Amino acid sequence: MSANKFQELIDKYLTNAILAEEQEQLFDMIEKKEYRADLEKVVKEALDISFEVEEDEALRERIFGLLQQRKNRSTVFRIYSLRRWGWSAASVVLILASVLVFRTINKKSNAPAPAIATVVDVEPGRDGAILTLADGTHLLLDSLDNGVVATQNGVQAVLKNGQLAYEVKERIAGEVVYNTMTTPKGRQYHMTLPDGTRVWLNAASSVYFPTVFSNKKRDITITGEVYLEVAPDPRRPFTVTAGKTTIEVLGTHFNVMAYENEAVMKTTLAEGSVQLSHGEHKLTLLPGQQAQVTGDITRLVKDVDMDAELAWKNGWFNFKYMDIQTVMKQVERWYDITVEYEGRIPEKRFNGELPRNVKLSELLEILRFSEVKFALQGKVLTIKE
Fold first, then answer.
1. What is the pTM of this model?
2. Cβ partners under 8 Å of residue 131, min gap 6
3. pLDDT class for 77, splitting at 50, 70, 90?
4. How many Cα atoms are found within 13 Å in the side-chain-facing hemisphere of 310?
5. What is d(CA 206, CA 132) in angstroms, rounded to the nearest whole number?
6. Beta-strand relationship, 163-168 and 155-160
7. Helix (H, G, I), strand (E, B), or coil: what is residue 364?
8. pLDDT at residue 196 above 90?
9. pLDDT for position 40
10. Alpha-carbon distance 102 to 43, whole Å?
11. What is d(CA 375, CA 361) in angstroms, rounded to the nearest whole number?
12. Helix-strand-coil percent breakdown of the chain, rounded to 5?
């Protein structure tokens, strides 16, 4: 079979046009030595790796070993955008998706592949949250059935198919009542606020909100990372407070990343416009722009990679030229583990993405591929020098 047929099957695979028997044929071709040169060309483009020196033989074998492992699994992960960061060769996606591998930007190492020390695998995060009512009652939404879970001043909190929404049945005058929605590590959640605003909470995040907004304004407070689709209402501006930063909108879609253990707070605008205030600094964002706050310094970044910034909401990890500590912060929150470092922190950067529904062992497979030494004991992951 020709190299052209090999590329044809890859192209079909990438566009979801491949038939079951053709996909089996493609993976059979990947195993055969006669197609090694064609596959190596694909891998070179994806990983920027040369196979021309003897020292790379171990790395070569690990790549094909991972391909074989992925072939034997029932689920094949795909990347949803074929032009993620402007890669010219669509075949890059086959490697990045099928092998769940991403490029490591670091000096080449001739050290043998480190062993994986794992005791128990860790499942990925899932939907779930804790609703804390004004009176201090905690409702674990993961464990509740569909229906009304709380009634406060004539407003009902209704759970339906894993999502919470507020419905005003008969508003009773009185003190404004505030609730808090919290996602622990290893959880994410989607809810609808009383005004119709839709909110997505990443792991280890929260939103503090009234059960009924006033007639003049709509104010909420958030921690962690939250994506909002604000219901338009010109009469009542919508204000988000995150730490010392305030974001004012009328109706728009935007993401706020404000974790306490992250050095930079980021507000990324997808639709509409927002005005961000931090101390004496004010910025107005347009779609595709991002405000970054570091300490008392505020700066505007234009033409950000929206797919990368919103990857978590769409079910992906997106590691774009990230160092290992930045990657591990996301891993800690999503898998509800603790990451420790033994010795010098590896000077590696990662570039690529993989689905958030993979088990921790699959993500660790990539660390192993990238020459990162580690040990997993229970829910403590130790990165070693």
1. 0.75
2. 138, 139, 141, 149, 150, 157, 164, 179, 180, 181, 182
3. very low
4. 20
5. 10
6. antiparallel
7. helix
8. yes
9. 64
10. 11
11. 11
12. 25, 35, 40
